[in-house]
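Q: Hi! First time doing this. I have a protein sequence and I read that you can turn it into a structure. Is that right? Here it is:
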Amino acid sequence: MTVALFPHTSSFGMYGAEDEPLATGPRFVRTERMSRWHRVRSGVRYGTGRTVYSLWCGSSVFDDRFLSRESLPAGDVVCATCDGRAVGSGQEPVGPAGRTLAFTPLGLTPPVHCPGSRSDRLTRAIPPGTVGRCLACGDLHPVRAMGGPYNGRAAIVQHPPGGRLVKPCPFHRWRYLDAQPDGSIRCSCGRELTAPAGADRAAHPQP
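A: Yes, that's right. Below is the predicted 3D structure, encoded as structure tokens:
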């Protein structure tokens, strides 16, 4: 039996369009050198065929060079950081010995400010240019001159994400959005990002 994994978020541009984030993984893992069992947070199958599981405590295990278990016998030691975060995040329903735990993984909720804010690359101005459409979320907002003499640009003002904010990249979330000539959005790793299901972008065409 496997457990549901969290997205493999990263602040670094080290993943490409051929890499696949894994949705499920083993419950307990350890290598021969590890002194205790660990919990899996996320996993990636690279385009090269290599699989890497990231653990809640920050360690990793690679390919099939590890042991995995669904349950453990009494007395086996489990990494407390891994187990507490796995339970507190909601990956597991009940904590060790029935304790109530809490942990909120970073990077999983939409940003407070839309990633299209103050970005001329993600602004599609509507003539005469005082209003523009945010290519990240589809909403209309005022366009202002900003950046000063050394980084001058005209871009949409800072705003909260609209209801048509594109789905996040499974690796980089909304960190590295880039607009294509046709108005579509890609992550810097090459993945095309679309609006969430049910979001009516067709009712709000690009100008």
